[in-house]
Amino acid sequence: MADFPHLSRRGFLNRSAAVGGLLVVPGLLTACSKTDSGAATGAGALEKLREQGFVRVAYANEAPYGYMEGKELKGEAPTLHREIFQALGVKELKPTLSEWDGLIPGLQAGKYDVVSAGMAITPERCGNAIFSEPEFISPTALMVKKGNPKKVTDLESAKEAGITIGVMSGAVEGSYAKGAGIAEGKIKTLQKPQDGADAVKGGRVDAFLLTGISLRWLAKTNPETEVTEAFVPQIDGNAQFSPGGAVFRRGNEDLRDSFNRELKKIVSDRSRYVGLLKEYGFGESEIPPADLKTADLCKG
């Protein structure tokens, strides 16, 4: 098996953090106000990318979203974005590694053209960059022992079965479990994904609650476990989709719109979407609903 980067829950949690908050630090706005002279900007951005033959993309080395394996850029976002840009006449992705918190500032500074890191679409981030339409959603799932002895399928069935649920420390899944009416005494906090898998295997919890994407990736190295079908939790009647997309610099709306046209062709074709991304744990349950729009997500 390839030596993949460690699956970082902190990195995943940062998807919902207010990255835009970093941009109000004195001096940082000034540092980001100038763009690199090589940046593809404005109405002619796509034509410039076609002429040079590549698009500069940023990744944070977080599997399964965007990471380097040997000399190959892999993951959900690079795979999807490579397909889209090739359809737009841009042959190559030219990668730049960035710390997660530096992705948007680097984009603003013109260090690259697109963030290809599976970044969640939040109102805070929408204030500092422009997003594609959702390219995936992150429904939740349960990791259980092989055979699913408690026969749980979602949080409602977990509550009815009276099982003990493991969640990540500080993660949103704890609120999902409480919102489903699971007693606090039945919710155990764990520090990292592998702790959750170990707790399931050791019988310390009956199920581990996390995104289906992350759990399917984790199950690759924990064959004694299995992952339930993904489901969308509800909080106060609101579905928790956690959608992510590609990120573009302000001023590149035309480039974003061209990207969206090709993206729509892929997410509208279930077999094509799954065929491209199943290697990274993405399936039909991760396909965004047609009525889930970035404009609405940016409003909050």
UniProtKB/TrEMBL annotation:
Tell me which NCBIfam families the record gives: ectoine_ehuB (TIGR02995)
This protein's record includes keyword Signal: yes
Tell me the PROSITE patterns matching this sequence.
TAT
Q: Which organism is it from?
A: Streptomyces cyaneofuscatus
* Sorted UniProt keywords: Signal
Chain segments annotated as coiled-coil in the UniProt record: none
Q: Does the keyword Signal apply?
A: yes
Task: Tell me the protein's name.
Answer: Ectoine/hydroxyectoine ABC transporter substrate-binding protein EhuB
